[in-house]
Amino acid sequence: MADKARTGARGPRPPRVEAPRDEAADIGVEARLAAGVLLNAALEGRGGLDSALSFREVADLPGPDRAFARAVAMAALRRLGEIDQILDRRLQKAPPLAVRTILRVALAQTLVLDTPAFAAVSTAVKLAERDPKTRPYKNLVNAVLRGVDRDGPGLTTAESNLPEWLAARWRATYGEPALAALALAAREEPDTDLSVKPDVDPAAVAADVEGEALEGGTVRTGRRGDVASWPGFEDGSWWVQDAAAAVPARLLAPKAGEAVIDLCAAPGGKTLQLCASGASVVALDRSDTRLKRLRANLERTGLTAEVVVTPAEDWEDDRSFDAVLLDAPCTATGTFRRNPEVLRATKPAEVAKLADVQHRLLDAAAERVKPGGRLVYCVCSMEREEGETQIIAFLRRNPAFKTVPADPVAVGSPAEALTPEGWLRILPSMWAEKGGLDGFFVARLERVA
Ligand SMILES: C[S@@+](CC[C@H](N)C(=O)[O-])C[C@H]1O[C@@H](n2cnc3c(N)ncnc32)[C@H](O)[C@@H]1O
């Protein structure tokens, strides 16, 4: 974008998705319309983007155009602050949202996805023209977009892409340099990470998908598109899982023959890791819909677990376990690289609300740990209230538990994620030279025998 020098150590990437071809001009306009629908749905609230995928404007598009629409919406979400900085310099007064959406969608194409300006501008003008509400702004749309193409976007700041309240929180928690690095991490579309079954060679998977094996065994690839068509998917040799998301199950270190429970299991990336160790695994989750994906993942990989559908606090079963994993529901602010919409969807009040849920679930999890057994607690959140503060409070109310300090490198985590207490605070800005990883808080506790 404007400050190209700040695109990060790995440099600019080629466009991931081809824009619809010119001869399919109408489809091209429909694809841009769908991108705007997706963008606004994502800005409206949590889950908005996913539900909008089934809206007629999106679902009726041919597959490649739907993929293009989604890529444009994601690019606009990642760079929304910068796009608005560019627009606001050229707009004398705020236009209606429908007009701003057309402009945002066009700039996401030219500035992020490298769509040729003529295609982005002409489809934007056609879009403006066809709705009576935006028709009066057709010339403005044309002038603004041609102006940006002619003069360049001008200077923009990566931090503008972060909502102010979150940027203020992260500045206070992690400091100014970390905030700047987080803002840079938030601009880039991440690579795809795969966790590999223990009997499969990560180097062979890496060769198959033109990727590289990272510490801990995760394979990282710059490939895009439908993973189901990649080598090794059908035979269940691997599953998609961010490098940071693979850390908690490694830290729990389940062994063959142990009784293990995953208390918030769906859609199951961590369950698969636990099952692959040869442990006897219960996968519990309150959501039957999400567990359907977990069951499909088990079937594809040939792994087995006992699947239980119930809220963890209400499970009427008196078993206790050698190892308990609690990957608690959270704001998911650490996943902003893959899900840029979380930054917009998360509201300040949710942090405290989810912290209450995590408190309850931690107590339910503790009851399931055998004397001498392990409990790993994790959240993909950047917020201390959902991570460090939970564990500090838990250890105060449960003196039978103590922290077992993590060895970060042994579990595939950046070394600098280790906190003085022995927990892991993984930030998306870490491993910048490798392309980063999701933000996670992970703690390993043990019930004193
Ligand atoms: C962060 S996700 C888990 C992701 C999963 N561990 C994985 O690696 O794929 C949190 C999960 O907690 C589940 N959940 C929320 N409240 C719960 C409760 N009270 N008891 C059990 N599961 C719950 C949600 O349905 C959701 O699937």
TrEMBL record:
Keyword annotations of the record: Methyltransferase, RNA-binding, S-adenosyl-L-methionine, Transferase
Listed GO MF terms: RNA binding; RNA methyltransferase activity
Chain intervals for the UniProt region annotation (Disordered): 1-23
EC numbers, comma separated: 2.1.1.176
Signal peptide annotation: none
Residue spans crossing the bilayer: none
Single Gene Ontology BP annotation: RNA methylation
Principal EC category: transferase
Active site: 380
Pfam families found in the cross-reference section: Methyltr_RsmB-F, NusB
Coiled-coil positions: none
All residue ranges annotated as the SAM-dependent MTase RsmB/NOP-type domain in the record: 154-448
Listed InterPro entries: MeTrfase_RsmB-F_NOP2_cat, MeTrfase_RsmB-F_NOP2_dom, NusB-like_sf, NusB_RsmB_TIM44, RCMT, RsmB/NOL1/NOP2-like_CS, SAM-dependent_MTases_sf
Binding-site residues, S-adenosyl-L-methionine: 264-270, 285, 327
Stated family: Belongs to the class I-like SAM-binding methyltransferase superfamily. RsmB/NOP family.
UniProt-recorded name of the protein: 16S rRNA (Cytosine967-C5)-methyltransferase
UniProt source species: Brevundimonas lenta
Taxonomic path: Bacteria, Pseudomonadati, Pseudomonadota, Alphaproteobacteria, Caulobacterales
